[in-house]
UniProtKB/TrEMBL annotation:
<dbReference type="Pfam" id="PF00486">
    <property type="entry name" value="Trans_reg_C"/>
</dbReference>
<keyword id="KW-0597">Phosphoprotein</keyword>
<dbReference type="InterPro" id="IPR036388">
    <property type="entry name" value="WH-like_DNA-bd_sf"/>
</dbReference>
<dbReference type="GO" id="GO:0006355">
    <property type="term" value="P:regulation of DNA-templated transcription"/>
</dbReference>
<feature type="domain" description="OmpR/PhoB-type">
    <location>
        <begin position="124"/>
        <end position="219"/>
    </location>
</feature>
<dbReference type="GO" id="GO:0032993">
    <property type="term" value="C:protein-DNA complex"/>
</dbReference>
<dbReference type="InterPro" id="IPR039420">
    <property type="entry name" value="WalR-like"/>
</dbReference>
<feature type="domain" description="Response regulatory">
    <location>
        <begin position="2"/>
        <end position="116"/>
    </location>
</feature>
<dbReference type="GO" id="GO:0005829">
    <property type="term" value="C:cytosol"/>
</dbReference>
<dbReference type="GO" id="GO:0000976">
    <property type="term" value="F:transcription cis-regulatory region binding"/>
</dbReference>
<dbReference type="InterPro" id="IPR001789">
    <property type="entry name" value="Sig_transdc_resp-reg_receiver"/>
</dbReference>
<dbReference type="InterPro" id="IPR011006">
    <property type="entry name" value="CheY-like_superfamily"/>
</dbReference>
<protein>
    <submittedName>
        <fullName>Response regulator transcription factor</fullName>
    </submittedName>
</protein>
<keyword id="KW-0238">DNA-binding</keyword>
<feature type="DNA-binding region" description="OmpR/PhoB-type">
    <location>
        <begin position="124"/>
        <end position="219"/>
    </location>
</feature>
<dbReference type="InterPro" id="IPR001867">
    <property type="entry name" value="OmpR/PhoB-type_DNA-bd"/>
</dbReference>
<feature type="modified residue" description="4-aspartylphosphate">
    <location>
        <position position="51"/>
    </location>
</feature>
Length: 219
């Protein structure tokens, strides 16, 4: 899952981003609406966590730009105002959900995950294939009943592959979905993550390399 966090309170923005990264989400961060407009024009996000009261460009305009981009991104709008009129106004410009500050991080995570399920074809929160079980709510992976300890990045790569349901996933697509914008497109990060993921999942191998195309999770 790739998430954009737009929040002018830097400490809060960085805290949200760090918490989501620990849950294997690829997270980009910006601190004003102008920068957010640039990001949504370049990257395909699953969810945008968007503060409504932003400097440079108001959050409402950013929300409208996300919708105009025509992608599948869903918007979770944050606000310090708790009155009904403010929430209605935010939803009226296209936000998919609303969260009033201060909020519990666990609730934000639950809302982000719920919106991500709406941003793409619905799949169950527990993915099962070839003896591998990926439990998103518990952030756990097992194979044939054996617990498999994965890093956040390995977990994210495995999720992308399993969600593809046997389709080939290119290295570029993996970088887009499992890494943030700071990832070097010429790096060997995908190859290294794939190597360690295969080793941890054990034999027989369930991740196939398709020469010149990418990787596929086999059945």
């Amino acid at each position: 899952m790739r998430v954009l966090v737009v929040e002018d309170e830097r400490l809060l923005a960085d805290s949200i981003a760090e918490g989501l990264r620990r849950l294997s989400m690829a997270v980009d961060v910006c601190y004003d609406g102008g920068e957010a407009l640039e990001r949504v024009g370049v990257h395909d996000y699953d969810v945008v966590v968007l503060d409504r009261d932003l400097p440079v460009v108001h959050g409402d305009q950013v929300c409208e730009a996300v919708l105009a981009a025509g992608g599948e991104a869903r918007v979770l709008m944050l606000t310090a105002a708790a009155d009904v009129d403010d929430r209605v106004a935010g939803l009226g410009v296209g936000a998919d959900d609303y969260l009033t500050k201060p909020f519990a991080f666990a609730e934000l995570v639950a809302r982000v995950r719920a919106l991500a399920r709406r941003a793409r074809p619905a799949l169950p929160p527990v993915l099962k294939r070839a003896g591998v079980v990926l439990d998103l709510p518990r952030h756990q992976v097992s194979r044939d009943g054996r617990f498999v300890a994965l890093s956040p990045k390995e977990f994210a790569v495995l999720e992308v592959l399993m969600r593809a349901e046997g389709a080939v996933v290119s290295p570029e697509s993996l970088l887009e979905k499992a890494w943030d914008e700071h990832a070097d497109p010429f790096t060997n990060a995908v190859r290294v993550a794939m190597m360690t993921l295969r080793r941890k999942l054990g034999t027989p191998q369930v991740i196939e390399t398709v020469p010149g195309a990418g990787y596929r999770f086999t059945s």
